[in-house]
Structure formats: C-alpha cells, structure tokens
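worker-03 picked up job from queue 'complexes'. Input manifest follows; two sequence lines, order preserved.
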Amino acid sequence: MNATMTAKATRTVKVETLARVEGEGGLLIKMKGDRIQEVKLNIFEPPRLFEGFLRGRHFTEIPDITARICGICPIAYQMSSIHALERALGVEIDPAVRLLRRLFYCGEWIESHALHVYMLHAPDFLGYQDVIEMAGRHRETVEKALRLKKIGNELVALLGGREIHPVSAAVGGFYRAPRKRELEGIRERLRWALDASLDTVRFTAGLNFPDFEQDYEFVSLSHPEEYPFNEGRIVSNRGIDIDAAQFEDHFIEQHVKHSTSLHAVVRERGSYLVGPLARFNLNFDRLTPLARQTAIESGLTPPCRNPFQSIIVRAVELVFACEEALRIIDVYEPPAKPRAPVEVRAGTGAAATEAPRGLLYHRYGVDEQGLITAARIVPPTSQNLKRIEDDLWRLAPRLTELPLEEITWRCEQAIRNYDPCISCSCHFLKVNIERE
Amino acid sequence: MNSNNGRKPRIAVFKFASCDGCQLSLLDAEDELLEVAGAVEIAYFPEASRRMLKGPYDIGLVEGSITTHHDAQRIQQIRRQCRMLVTIGACATAGGIQALRNWRDTGEFVRYVYARPDYIQTLNYSTPIAEHVPVDFELRGCPIHKHQLLELLSATLAGRKPNIPTYSVCIECKRRGAVCVAVAQGQMCLGPVTQAGCGAICPAYGRGCYGCYGPMENPNSRRLAAWFLEKGCEREQVVRAFRTYNAWAWQFREATEEREG
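worker-03 finished. Artifact:
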C-alpha cells in the first residue's frame, strides 16, 4: 500500500494490492482539488482460460472443473453448470434432489456471508486492519463469527464431502444423497446459527453508514414462491423479466476505450448491480417472516440503495439461509435414486443461479457424445465491476476533505461492499479502467 | 523454527493463478485461527488483512501456478524473501487445471475466451512453482486439507518434519471401509496412484477418485492407465482422467504420453 500526497494540486489514491477481497486487484484514483480525474480498478489476476479448456471435456466432468474457478463459491459454479447442462440434455430431477440443492446452497451462503460480513467487511466499519486485530477488542463477536462460518462449512461438507470443491454434486442429482438421520445431526447447530445470524443483523445494523444512496438497476433471479437460489426468471427493477436462455440478448459485454476489460452492461442502458442488495430489493416478500421482520426492525426496508448497507442485507440472508436449511431438514426424505439417469443428446442449455455475491450465468453446447462444444460463463463480479467503478466516481468527490489515508480506506471499503471475487471474474477478463 | 531471537515467526501468503481455495483453508480453520494468529505473525496475507508488512519472512505459503512473465519474475523475488517456501495445492505444486493449456494452442484459447486477445499477456504454459525456484515443501490437494496445513505449520514451528503421508488414497479408502468402486463397480478410479490426504471422500460418495491430490510417491500410473484400457475404457476417457487438476505432474503425464525413444 502506498499513498502519496503532493500539496493541494494533485492527489493520488493508490492501492497496489486490494486486501480482503478474493483474488488480485489494485486501485488508482487521481484527484485535482475536489475533481476526480481518473479511477482505475486494475485487475491483475492472471487469466486461466476456463472456457477454452472446457471444450472437449465430457459433460460429467464440468461441475468439478468449474468449481475450481472459485474456492469461496464452488457450489455456485457447480449449480449453474449442472442446471445449464440439465437443460441442454433434457434431464428431469427428483423433487428431493431439488431440495438438497437448496440445502447445499444454504451452506455456501452461510459460509461465504459469515466470512465476508465479519472477516472481510466489518473491520472496515470498526477501523481494524483485519479480523485478527478486531478480535483483540471483540473476541466474543469474532469467536461467534467463526463458529457461524464453521456451521455453514459443516453443512457443505455433510452434503459434499468437504468444504472447498465438494465432490457430490452431479448432473442429474448427487453421487450420494444423505440419509435423513445424517441431516438431523446438524439441526441443533443450525438453530444456534440462526440465533447467531439474528445477532449478526443487530450487530451490522449498529454500524455507521455513510449517506450514499445511488440509483441502481438491480438484477437477480426471482421465483414466485421462493427467495431465489437455483431457479427463477432473471428480473430487474427496470423491467427486465426473462428466462436465463435470453441472458445474452439483454446483457452484453462492452469494450471500454483504452481498456482490456469486458464490462457486462444492460444493453443500451449501462451498469447494473447483482448480489444481496439486488436479491433483497427484488424478493423481499419471499424472505421468511422472521428474516423480513428482523430486517424491518433494524431499519432496513426495500428499496435499500446504500451499497454500504449490503453488510446488513448479508446478515438478513444469513437468517434466511439458516431458517431455510432447518425447514428443508424437517421435510427431507431421501430421493429414490440420488441421480436421475441422463440420456446423452446434442443440445444447448443456459442457466443462472444465485452465488453468494450475485447472479452466475453459464451456457454450454453439448454434442451427441456428451462432449462440450461451447462454454460461456459470466460471473457476478464481472457484472458488478462497472457498477463498482461508477460508485467510486460518485463517492470519491465527497471524500476530498479527508486525509489521503482515510480516502484510500473508504474507497477500499466501497469496493468491498460488493464482496468482489476477482479470481472468478478474471478467468475471462482483465480490467484496466481509464477515463479521460 | 529456531534462531528467531525470541520473536514470532513471520508468515506470508502469496497468490498466483488459482481459485483462492487453498489460502481460504487457513481461514476455514475456524477452531484454530485465533490460536495460529497468536503463535505466529501473519505479516502478509492480503486476502485477510490490509496490513501488508515487507519481508523477509520465515515461512512463505505460495498458492497458484506461474502463467505470466510478471509472475515468473515475482516468484524469484518472493523466494529471496522467504527462509522456507511451501507450495500449497495443485496449482502451485503441479500447474493446476489451467495447465490443460500446455497440450494445446494457448493463443487459440485466448481468442476463444477474450474478444481482444491482443490485450492479454499470458505464457503458453502453466507451470508449478518448483520449475522456477527451489521449494522446501509441497502440500498437495485441490484444495489442500486444512489439517495438513495446520500440521505443516505446527511441525515447522516445532522444528520437526511434518507428518504428511505419501501413500495412496487406497490406504485411506480401506481404512474408511469404503467399497472399492474400481473392483466392485468397474468405475475408473485414480486412487491407486493418488496421494492420500483427502480421506478418500470420492469412493465414500460412490465415485472414482479423480486424482486431485496428485501422484503418490512412486506411482505406477502407466500400468493403471493400461488396466483401464483392458477393462474397456476409451483411450480419450483415460487421457481426460489423468488430465485434470494435476495434469502437468510428470507421473500423471507419463500415463498418457508416448514413451520417448
């Protein structure tokens, strides 16, 4: 980290390596007086070329391979690829498998949100460099956070064998479905996790938030009866209402001048926001009554347009994920067969699911031997990058009175509002934003 | 680890081309994290902290493979700053899933993924850290197991050799009492040639091991590949089985590449 300041004329906010984000990126903001001259979010994560080497692989291998795009949200990658492939191959799944997939996603949301809320984002609000330093004054809170995160991981490992890159998810279902008794073993811990999540809402609602409301286009899945994980139409607060198969007709990736980035934008409209804030605003009435009530009691009602408050929304989603997991465990009966049989045929399929940090789109072409002929993956962070940049252009002018170190920290915090997952986004893009 | 003049050993975590999952394993050690943070100084770990202290470091944990010129230079600097350099996971140890480019035209991959390939700078090969600098210890797995990471740290702090078995997944599978999916069900399973450490989870979940911990000590990969062919597997299927997360490890490469000379 390097901050330099030269008189009043020109000041430069420079963060060589962004901390507390997943993956590698940097930030450069140039200011003259209170005018912002340049905002550059530099992503130097090396490209890994996933879509390139997915072609020619057998469809059964895809969920395991795409999981390796992201170590924090591997289940999201498994789920989006599985749903897209099931649509390509015309596979019908057992209702019990559908429930298990929701349960699997609950585990990932709990693990990932607890990580972000307490370990990556809260230290910004409280003025600590990291969660270890935060534990000095807030030992009990941090211990509770770690236990909450662990329960999310335990749920993932229970269904998938391990926390990171679990091995059980497959096209058609699971390699192995748990017995009811196995799931019941985690019920008590989930009840504890629900209480801890309610505390998390109260904890986050008590933080200080800058007055920073923005006019966003929110985009998320929407399902008539459920808060969205795996299924639903892609909707926005500005009239988008489409099937995932139409994603590429409405969302395009633009080239920015002097840039190596592909910015996902709504065609002919511009940047948009995916993630907890979008889900909350578009699906508030499908949260559980307790999650809804807790949100309202903490002063959070839709539409929430302050991205810094996304930390409260993640806490509300923690409440939801714990309650949903408990509900599923109560009603679960193992499927007759853990995996539906798959008849190989040529086809194309697209699907989107809700990764903890937002909408994750996959499309695949499959040939008559079951080999992949085409692959397209649009991760949540690449959809949010343009929006993060837009936030920084609007936030930085309000900070010019502050010392440079403080400006730097606030801008970093604004980036972390999005829980960016740079390893994900960079498997296919490299960003170098410049404006003149 | 001795000769620290009473100060805590300094640990640094570095990332190259990877998914972040292996360094996340340290944060996933929920029960031990605060204890670890008390025993060592976490001097450089950007995923967890904004405080980034300069080297030298006592232990450098390196995640990810080398895929760019810049990273090939960066690992040289990192090696000079670390008394002990440990690679964590399949990317750092064997080149990772992104090493699948090593058999193909990387330029063609770049053109497929990026609309403006001229902006992309990447090497034609994804290579493990040990092809660039000396490595003191390699932790296997895609991802690594957090208990193996904690064992490595404890052993290093105590000045002893870490207890990380180099035998095959089959040993763990037998101990676990899982049914042999290769013999009993005729599934392709890389367990006989893959290093233990995962707990044989794939066979326990009714599927063949896919080799994410990489080759065990002295594996007979060529024989296993031949056995799959004898059992009626297609050659392409066998090649794909060995070409996943540890594809560039030579013991897996020799299973599917023609013997030279």
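worker-03 released lock.
The radius of gyration of chain B is 20 Å.
Strands of chain B lie at 10-15, 41-44, 57-63, 82-88, 137-139.
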